[in-house]
Design brief:
The chain has 475 residues and is α/β, with parallel strands linked by helices. The protein folds into 2 domains: 56 residues; 357 residues, Rossmann fold (3-Layer(aba) Sandwich). The chain is built from 13 helices and 13 strands. It has a 7-stranded mixed beta sheet with strand order 5-6-7-4-9-12-13, with helices on both faces. A 4-stranded mixed beta sheet has the order 1-11-10-8. Bound molecules: 2-acetamido-2-deoxy-beta-D-glucopyranose (7 copies). This is Trichome birefringence-like N-terminal domain-containing protein. Keywords: Membrane, Signal-anchor, Transmembrane, Transmembrane helix. It is a single-pass membrane protein.
Length: 475
């Protein structure tokens, strides 16, 4: 296998996705490369890919839910570039629109964004108060308090569903300080986490997290928090797929995760094998995912980082010639948020369904932002940022304003879990080098740990547990 070239932007991509196992990815990767060269053998190869997938899944079923990450895209795309296949030969001569976008979807050509909008948002006047979140107290402003008696809320090794990307202690992190912090709002107290009470709230219900790998981290945190009081034979988890379901029999309840990094339909909807460098989305198709989440009783959404990787392509459902429009990430995210918002506005009855939106999870990619003239990132960071006003460049303000604007019309239906400011302080909480990496690290990388640190995701136990304590507060 060719050595992988990893630019910093590609590295961000790598970190954004997750994986079942290196071997699975490599199998799949080889298959995909062959597939690209021999399109005509698709049915045979598809069967083969499926077979290999099953075998790999069995071989690498690490007993727990494992996530799916790989840079497959770069192998494939690099090989295409190297053999300089002209664009036209990669597109069937009689282009016909695929029914569903997948990683092989292509644009026949790309034009500038026309300014077109998807559906209309239902502009109903908002009556009443924002649900759940007491106006008397802002739970999101306050400070972190070192408290090694109340936290961590579970032990890393006690959670059978822990992900190898997030199990920092297991992967060699020597300092455990990041586990011992609780969040203290300025003018009030958070409810103490009570696992029995949480299960009572979930009895007979479906709780579903929908979004990207950050939201998946919060979901893993949630099932780690919840599983301790359920006997092993009374809980189960479905095989890893776009929708993964944790089930607790005696409560007749599920805690689920749906991979939908752009919220609307896109060519990145396969959690195993998604395409990152050319993101194509259908801004008018939220229903593909909504059909999976519409039956859930409690929904927790996020989306952000996938919109921060440059322009995205729009393929409207009515477009039959494969002509995409290109739009900048923020514009694309706004279209997706509007499509999502219009679904919420017309489908959510707040008396029956709770909907939460989790704001931007900050990154800590440049230590100069909290320590001028330094040149690192989150690697080796063991302390918290104490400047209350600290705001890193990774948390894009125009995006925050857009999200706030879209959510403002939904305040009776959607509760915001505004984690951004409180999470900004936690430069100590990222895995950095203490996680499983799927790509082979070169000697140069190994000699410079900061160069391959993950400063995007969060160690568990850790910061996402506190996001879940906030969710518990508002449920
Ligand atoms: C596309 O072209 C192939 C052969 O070139 C033909 O068999 C197929 O029917 C065509 N499909 C459509 C939708 O025209
Ligand atoms: C908690 O932290 C204090 C101060 O660092 C330390 O003395 C104590 O041993 C710790 N307790 C536990 C249970 O880790
Ligand atoms: C974690 O493990 C330690 C030692 O094994 C134990 O003292 C502690 O109570 C455990 N914490 C939780 C939350 O289970
Ligand atoms: C946790 O919640 C349960 C059920 O609501 C309650 O009976 C129990 O006393 C609570 N435990 C604590 C420590 O508050
Ligand atoms: C379990 O919960 C589902 C809703 O999630 C409900 O339809 C079903 O009737 C419940 N079953 C029992 C035995 O309570
Ligand atoms: C979240 O809080 C920040 C300030 O900490 C604010 O700028 C932002 O608008 C808030 N976002 C939403 C969606 O309320
Ligand atoms: C919110 O609703 C108002 C009218 O109630 C409308 O003018 C505005 O465009 C809506 N904003 C968004 C972001 O949908």
């Amino acid at each position: 296998m060719r050595k992988i070239r990893i630019s910093s932007q590609h590295r961000l991509f790598l970190l954004l996705s997750v994986n079942l196992s290196l071997s699975l990815s490599l199998c799949l990767c080889r298959m995909m490369q062959r597939w690209h060269k021999k399109r005509t053998h698709f049915p045979l190869l598809a069967a083969l890919i499926f077979f290999v997938f099953i075998v790999c899944s069995i071989l690498y079923n690490e007993r727990s839910i494992q996530q799916i990450h790989q840079n497959l895209d770069h192998h494939v795309d690099d090989s295409l570039k190297k053999t300089s296949v002209p664009e036209s030969t990669t597109v069937p001569p009689n282009y016909s629109l695929p029914v569903v976008l997948d990683r092989f979807s292509t644009c026949r050509s790309t034009v500038k964004y026309s300014g077109r909008k998807a559906g209309k948002i239902v502009h109903r006047p908002e009556l009443g108060h924002q649900r759940g979140i007491e106006e008397s107290c802002d739970f999101f402003s306050g400070k972190w308090v070192f408290d090694n008696t109340s936290h961590p809320l579970y032990n890393e090794s006690d959670c059978p569903y822990m992900s190898d990307q997030l199990a920092c202690h297991k992967h060699g992190r020597p300092d455990l300080g990041y586990q011992y912090w609780r969040w203290q709002p300025r003018n009030c107290n958070l409810k103490r986490w009570n696992v029995t009470e949480m299960w009572e709230k979930l009895r007979g219900k479906r709780l579903m997290f929908v979004g990207d790998s950050l939201n998946r981290g919060q979901w893993i945190s949630m099932i780690c928090l919840l599983q301790s009081i359920i006997p092993a034979d009374k809980r189960s988890i479905s095989p890893n797929a776009a929708l993964t379901v944790f089930r607790a029999e005696e409560y007749n309840a599920t805690v689920e995760f749906l991979w939908a990094p752009l919220l609307v339909e896109s060519n990145s909807d396969d959690p195993v094998n998604h395409r990152l460098d050319e993101r194509i989305m259908r801004p008018d198709s939220v229903l593909k995912h909504a059909s999976q989440w519409e039956q859930a009783d409690i929904l927790v959404f996020n989306t952000y980082l996938w919109w921060r990787q440059g322009p995205v392509k729009l393929l409207w459902s009515s477009e039959t010639n494969g002509i995409c429009e290109e739009i900048d990430g923020l514009g694309g995210m706004e279209l997706a948020m509007e499509a999502w918002a219009s679904w919420v506005a017309s489908n959510v009855n707040p008396l029956k369904k709770r909907v939460f939106f989790v704001t931007t999870s900050p990154t800590h990619l440049w230590s100069r932002e909290w320590e001028p003239r330094s040149e690192g990132n989150c690697y080796n960071e063991k302390t918290l940022i104490i400047d209350e006003a600290y705001w890193g460049s990774g948390s894009d303000l125009p995006t925050m304003r857009m999200v706030e604007k879209v959510l403002s019309n939904l305040s009776s239906k959607v509760s915001v879990i505004n984690i951004t400011q409180l999470t900004e302080y936690r430069k100590d909480g990222h895995p950095s080098i203490y996680r499983k990496f799927w790509e082979t690290l070169s000697p140069e990388q190994l000699s410079n740990p900061a160069s391959y640190s993950d400063c995007i995701h969060w160690c568990l136990p850790g910061v996402p547990d506190v996001w879940n304590e906030l969710l518990f507060q508002f449920l």
